[in-house]
Amino acid sequence: MIDLHFTATPNGQKISIAFEELGLPYRLIQYDIFQGDHLTEAYGRINPNHKMPAIVDHDPAFGGGPHAVFESGAILQYLAEKTGKLLPADPRQRSVALQWLTWQVAGLGPMGGQASHFMRYAPEQIPYAIERYSRELARLLMVLENRLSEAPYLAGDEYSIADIAIWPGRAAMAVVDVNLAETYPNIYRWFSTIAERPAVQRGRSAEKAFPDKYMGRHQKLSPEEWSNMFGDRMHSAVPGHA
């Protein structure tokens, strides 16, 4: 059994979808990040960065007792290697899959997150920040669009953890305020195809679906919620940092 420390965000859904695709048994442990559930010392021993998600594998292939993994890209690669699935066997295609996985965690994800923050959470509108991050997000989406004009999936012909890493972030694309089918037709085709997969539907349904309070176009946080998400309590959760 593997514990999945989870909140229903795109990063969390990456991992719940991967578990469903791989057929691995897992125990879902829900966190409310607005309430600061992720800021405890106990969770810090699992993920010293105090972000979601993380896993604890109680029976790792290499033995030695429970093994914790944090960062969504690292978790996806760990699960793929554990099962021998969702990574191409062909070394060239495997390399391509890992390149796109890295592209998501290093570029598309952070830029989408910053665009979302300044458009949805920032207490005041900062035009430079909004333009900077929304424009970069649009550029990255065109990189994705161009890749998907060449192949059905990120690694080529084979669905992989690279696709799983990117797919749940479709909700975050709303910040660029475009018609996806018209502006990014290849992304739209890819997104629609993956949305039909039964494991994807299971990985984002019921308690794993985005709650309404995470989906507001303009989020209004209480002082406590702001502290837990972006402010003093979030920063002070890391020992030695205030």
Automatic annotation (TrEMBL):
PROSITE patterns: GST_CTER, GST_NTER. Pfam families: GST_C (PF00043), GST_N_2 (PF13409). It comes from the Bacteria. Gene3D superfamilies: 1.20.1050.10, Glutaredoxin (3.40.30.10). Residues 1-87 form the GST N-terminal domain. Residues 90-215 form the GST C-terminal domain. This is Thiol:disulfide oxidoreductase. It comes from Sphingomonas crocodyli. The lineage of its organism: Bacteria, Pseudomonadati, Pseudomonadota, Alphaproteobacteria, Sphingomonadales.
